[in-house]
Amino acid sequence: MGWPSMETASALDEARGSTLKVEEASPADAERPQASPLHGAGSPIPQLPPPIEEHPKIWLPRALRQTHIRKVGDTVNLQIPFQGKPKPRATWTHDGRALDGSRVSVRTGERDSILFIREAQRADSGRYQLSVQLGGLEATATIEILVIERPGPPQSIKLVDVWGCSATLEWTPPQDTGNAALLGYTVQKADTKSGLWFTALERYHRTRCIVSNLVVGNSYAFRVFAENQCGLSETAPVTAGLAHIQKAVTVYKTARFAQRDFSEAPRFTQPLADCTAVSGYDVQLFCCVRASPKPKIIWLKNKIDIQGNPKYRALTQLGICSLEIRKPSPLDGGIYTCKAVNPLGEASVDCRVEVT
């Protein structure tokens, strides 16, 4: 019988060894690491981590580098790309704590991680941090999320004063600003006749104001809304009393001064002029007198009063005295006199009339 070849002997030795390990194996042996053929029976096999081909890094979108503002009830869907090879481990935290899985869901792929909130609430506001780890390397990114809603109404409003066509109002800020800074207040007015509300002031920053240009005779009520980035508050307090705009009573005071005395005795500023008349043709005599009080005018012919004689017609208007001689005859010639008399004195003027 010849010697077996080297390959056949090796195969037989391996078969005998495998069978021996199976037969003599125990539970304790199963937990111990198997010896490498290149090492001794007591040397464990070293488990080397895969080499890092790409360092972890987060690419934060520009829009998320500032505070991400959403309204209550809106959807939050943030997709954050990152890099790293082999695939790194991505972890999210909210204000340093683990996410609430009942409200926030996270999906992480090979190259990005998505944070999703179906209906945002104010409690979801805060600092969210994404951490990407690969071996001993780590990259982090922080995102500020602010969930806002409409502010509450101002706590109260008071009618401080009413003067002229204006009213002074005062109110207190709202307790709840809606998780956002107030942009101001909107003040509205309504008169009792129409009952319609009109805006008097918008985005007013103080808590005290004056509403002007109110209509005389009307009564007004006022209300004020708070406003933030989401809009006006749903309700507004209304003044308890009404502002009655009444017509102001004006008292005129006349200046006291010495009354000037315009009284004067009669004085003729234009005398009578001599004239020659043609028989049968009417002729008129004129003169001007000045006096205060108004004087009494008396006409004389040759020093005889001719008042009431139908042949003569005397008129006086604005200090102008006139005498009309109707169809004179040569007998109507003579000296005519105009006399002016008032309580302060008298004056007279004469003229000669010839009839040819």
Ranges with pLDDT <50 over ≥5 residues?
Answer: 1-41
Oligomer: single chain
* pLDDT averaged over residues: 84
Strand proportion, as a percent range, falls in over 45%
Classify the helix fraction into a percent range. Answer: under 10%
Describe the largest sheet: 5 strands, mixed
Helix-strand category: mainly beta
**If helices are DSSP runs of H or I spanning 4 or more residues, what is the number of helices?**
2
Cα-based radius of gyration, to the nearest Å: 60 Å
Query: Looking at the structure, what is the overall shape?
Result: rod-shaped
Beta strand count: 26
The order of strands across the largest sheet is 2-9-8-4-5
Description:
With 356 residues, the protein is mainly beta. It has two helices and 26 strands. The chain has helices at residues 6-24, 27-31, and strands spanning 54-58, 68-71, 76-85, 89-94, 97-98, 104-108, 112-117, 126-134, 137-148, 156-163, 166-172, 184-191, 197-204, 208-211, 219-228, 231-232, 243-244, 264-270, 275-277, 283-292, 296-301, 304-305, 312-317, 320-325, 334-342, 345-355. The strands form six sheets. Strands 2-9-8-4-5 form a five-stranded mixed beta sheet, with no helix packed on it. A hairpin with a 2-residue loop joins strand 15 and strand 16. The longest helix is centred in the first third of the chain and has 19 residues, at 6-24. Mean pLDDT is 84; it is low at 1-41.
